[in-house]
Automatic annotation (TrEMBL):
A GO CC annotation given for this chain: protein-containing complex
Protein name: Protein-lysine N-methyltransferase EFM3
Provenance organism: Drosophila madeirensis (Fruit fly)
Domain of life, source organism: Eukaryota
Coiled-coil regions, chain positions: none
Annotated Gene3D superfamilies: Vaccinia Virus protein VP39
UniProt-listed PANTHER family: HEPATOCELLULAR CARCINOMA-ASSOCIATED ANTIGEN, PROTEIN-LYSINE N-METHYLTRANSFERASE EEF2KMT
InterPro entries membership: Methyltransf_16 (IPR019410), SAM-dependent_MTases_sf (IPR029063)
């Protein structure tokens, strides 16, 4: 019976918008056993019991389910209890968890994230659509990371680095260094790395460090392996940061004799902003190649279909 609700389960655990969930898999009338099974697969899932998703999200989900059932069925007690279980505990908290279930192979990533888009002066305390799209792209093109030492810029919650080091996925990447300019993000990504690799030796997990793009020359690069691949997601939104980012790229490409590739994923919010960045790349003699589109329909990360994400490869 749980298999029947596997899509709902995957969507619930990563807080996919309630109104876009696969409600068509909930066939009415739904007897008590089925109601109980759906609640067990979602609110009662062991991951949610240990690391709960946002209380307001769980409430919205259960209310929608009650609405759906109310004219057909007597409601199971578990629906009412799941409405109240987290509310009191979580009321004042700014952070909650999301769980990304990767159905094939069987693996998951748990991230602690801010429940608001901007918190502690940064946008990086929650995971953005572009990071999910880049994660999907890498799942489908694992050859681009095989054996490579990777640095992620503006890594936020740390999703990509955690994904690339999950043993079940066999990416076989080299050293992974997750960086961000915000000290709060670096602390959060460290916590998320520790959460996902509780017993893995330090050498086999992503490393985390604070790196502001305008301080790239002062970073202790000698402590890390030589970078082969740069990754970044959703860092092209503020044109006041373009010069700092481009200067950082110049420094990194030059220090690697231009034997460096960057994969950059950007949500297309403002075409002019992206265009301006592309022009700056061309002026600095970078070659940009668009990467294959990754359909949200086959996403491992329940991506929202509304946001278009562009992924490009940058070489020089
Ligand atoms: C929209 S968030 C994206 C976070 C993550 N990559 C994702 O897609 O979920 C932008 C990230 O870039 C980081 N950032 C912005 N300006 C930066 C700078 N000048 N130096 C380093 N990091 C910066 C922010 O701290 C934030 O974590």
């Amino acid at each position: 019976m749980t298999e029947k609700f596997s899509k709902m389960q995957q969507q619930f655990l990563c807080c996919y918008p309630v109104n876009k969930m696969s409600w068509s898999s909930v066939k009415l009338p739904m007897d008590w056993d089925e109601q109980k099974a759906l609640i067990a697969a979602t609110c009662g899932h062991p991951l949610n019991e240990r690391y709960p998703v946002r209380a307001s999200y769980q409430e919205a989900f259960v209310k929608r389910l009650m609405q759906l059932l109310k004219d057909h069925e007597e409601l199971h007690d578990d629906l009412f209890s799941s409405l109240t279980s987290q509310k009191c505990e979580q009321q004042c908290k700014d952070f909650a968890y999301k769980h990304y279930l990767l159905l094939q192979p069987d693996a998951h990533i748990t991230l602690r994230e801010s429940i608001s888009f901007v918190n502690e002066g940064t946008t990086g305390l929650c995971t953005w659509e572009a990071a999910l799209a880049l994660a999907d792209y890498l799942m489908q093109h694992s050859d681009v990371v095989k054996g490579k030492n990777i640095v992620e810029l503006g890594a936020g919650t740390g999703l990509i680095g955690i994904l690339l080091k999950l043993p079940a996925l066999g990416f076989d990447a080299g050293q992974i260094l997750l960086t961000d300019g915000s000290a709060s993000c670096v602390q959060l990504m460290r916590d998320n790395v520790a959460l996902n690799f509780p017993e893995t030796p330090k050498e086999a997990i992503p490393q985390c460090a604070q790196l502001r793009w305008d301080e790239v020359k002062d970073f202790p690069w000698q402590q890390y392996a030589k970078t082969d691949l740069l990754l970044a997601a959703d860092v092209i939104y503020d044109d006041s940061q373009f010069d700092a980012l481009l200067d950082a790229l110049d420094h990194l490409y030059t220090s690697r004799g231009n034997c460096l590739e960057m994969l950059l994923a950007s949500t297309v919010r403002n075409v002019d902003t992206l265009h301006k960045f592309m022009e700056q790349l061309a002026k600095r003699e970078y070659k940009v190649t668009p990467c294959a589109n990754v359909s949200a329909c086959v996403s491992h990360f329940c991506r929202d279909h509304t946001a278009a994400v562009q992924i490009i490869s940058i070489k020089r």
